[in-house]
Design a protein that fits this description.
By secondary structure, the protein is α+β, with helices and mostly antiparallel strands. It has two domains: 1-39; 45-137, Immunoglobulin-like, CATH 2.60.40. Helices cover 27% and strands 46% of the residues. The chain has one helix and eleven strands; from the N terminus they run αβββββββββββ. The strands form two sheets. Strands 2, 5, 6, 9, 10 and 11 form a six-stranded mixed beta sheet that branches. Strand 5 and strand 6 form a beta hairpin. The protein is elongated and about 85 Å long. Residues 1-21 form the signal peptide. This is YtkA-like domain-containing protein. Residues 39-121 form the YtkA-like domain.
């Protein structure tokens, strides 16, 4: 009999504490939504430019034009270019620096002919995007 009373009391205490916790969480969520409403909603757009065809052994440029809300992003957290072979194996990952007007550029030389993919991995304003383009190397 004592164990039934003890279990009932524990269950009631857990339910009471759980209900109080939900009220506190919903109050915090309400306050958080007001703060978020004051912040500007950001977009992250990347125009990836790579040559459609290239020659093995020749230097090529890859450029990512990064914009947010139609404005150039000059302070992206990270911009990297990844080169993959036709089987999807990553061959190289190169970090790019901002040059001007939201442009992030690297130079790259393909060693041999084949089909490749180039992906720009862009992180800015707590967003991530990774557009991909194809390159045929002769």
């Amino acid at each position: 009999m004592k164990s039934k009373i003890w279990m009932t009391a524990m269950l009631a205490a857990v339910m009471l504490l759980g209900a109080c916790g939900n009220d506190i969480d919903s109050e915090n969520r309400d306050h958080g939504s007001h703060e978020e409403a004051d912040e500007e909603v950001r977009s992250l757009d990347v125009n990836l430019e790579v040559p459609g065809t290239a020659k093995a052994g020749e230097n090529e440029s890859f450029t990512a034009h990064v914009t947010s809300n139609e404005e150039d992003v000059t302070d992206a957290d990270k911009v990297r270019f990844e080169v993959l072979d036709a089987d999807g194996n990553s061959l190289d990952m190169i970090e790019a620096e901002h040059s001007e007007n939201g442009l992030y550029t690297i130079d790259y030389t393909f060693d041999e002919a084949g089909d490749y993919s180039v992906i720009s991995h862009v992180d800015a304003y707590q967003l991530h995007t990774m557009p991909e383009k194809q390159v045929t190397v002769r």
